[in-house]
């Protein structure tokens, strides 16, 4: 598998989203940032990773079809 910028961005977004989501669930309330906001950011990052990953998979599939 070739690591393109899209693949790296998707992987980084997924890892950061996972870390934020776990961190938000484990921290006690601080009064400054609500855990729901942290979870929302994690969901947006997972969504971005999904879109980048799907686009990368489609491009990979196209390149396989064009070779044949």
Describe the structure.
81% of the residues lie in helices and 0% in strands. It has helices at 5-26, 35-67. It starts with a helix and ends with a helix. The chain is mostly helical. The longest helix is centred in the last third of the chain and has 33 residues, at 35-67. The protein is built from two helices and no strands.
> Beta fraction of the residues?
under 5%
- Taken from the alpha-carbon principal axes, the silhouette is rod-shaped
Radius of gyration based on Cα positions = 16 Å
Helical residue percent band: over 70%
- Helix-strand makeup class: mainly alpha
Number of strands: 0
Summarize the structure.
This protein has 68 residues and is mainly α.
Element layout with pairings:
Blueprint: H1 5-26, H2 35-67
Helix pairs in contact: 1-2
